Amino acid sequence: MTFQIVADSSSDVLSLPHVSYAQVPLAIRAGGVTYVDDAALDVSGMVDALRAGKGKSSTACPGLEDWLNAFGDAERVICVTITSALSGTCSAAKVAAREYEETHPGRRAYVLDSLSTGPEMRLILEKLDELAAPDADFDAVVQEIEAYRRHTHLLFCLQSLHNLVVNGRVNAAVGALVGLLGIRVIGQASAKGELEIVAKARGEKKAQKAVWSAMSAHGYAGGKVRITHCRNAEGAEALARTIREAWPGADVSVGPARGLCSYYAEEGGLLVGYEGA
Ligand code: X90
Hints:
277 residues; alpha/beta; six-stranded mixed β-sheet; four-stranded parallel β-sheet; globular; binds heptadecanoic acid
């Protein structure tokens, strides 16, 4: 019996090497255009259009039908979502999972709330790619992945919080930091899956240092790291180098964020998912 692994597009994961996998896109709306965050999206083109446009913009989470379609006809589904504290994505997935189990007695569908997003979701999905072998026990895989994600973390470094603020995804105190020119905000996904500021820094180099010291302080000791960026490959590679210098042989990789994370992390933004304590 094979597994179907499903995640929303904030994971930036379009495919996995071993398991059957489907991605469910969120959407970004700006200037009368809807950008569906699927494999076909021209992310850089969207970021250009967002920069040129001054109007309102927003995002929309997938609905029940989108999730059900992604579950396909699988006997066993494990679904990974963006934090339930910031998006309706997870609750739609949970409704879909319940309905799936009810309409197909004997089938199983489990929703894991990542309490995070982006590259931390990638770590969870890569682990599921290892765990969800056809002969694996469903409940054991669920237990193992829940245990794994308690030791993964997300840090980020943003040049602007504008889109997070206008869409009501951060609280007023955090919002007050917006617009401080040249200030980078370093934050983390909190235990409750909310955005929590850990430091502020002026300039890219100091910001990178702050990210690195936050990682070390949170028990990073040479585990896997996944870094994504919104048009800041240079910053992402510099951070990767710092990590590899401190922990030679560490599995660190860098890639571009896709639509949803690019919209919220904004130009220059970095997201870092890592295995820690
Ligand atoms: O419309 C929707 O339902 C989607 C809302 C998503 C809101 C948050 C997206 C965050 C993307 C930005 C930095 C990381 C913050 C993570 C905090 C847990 C990435």
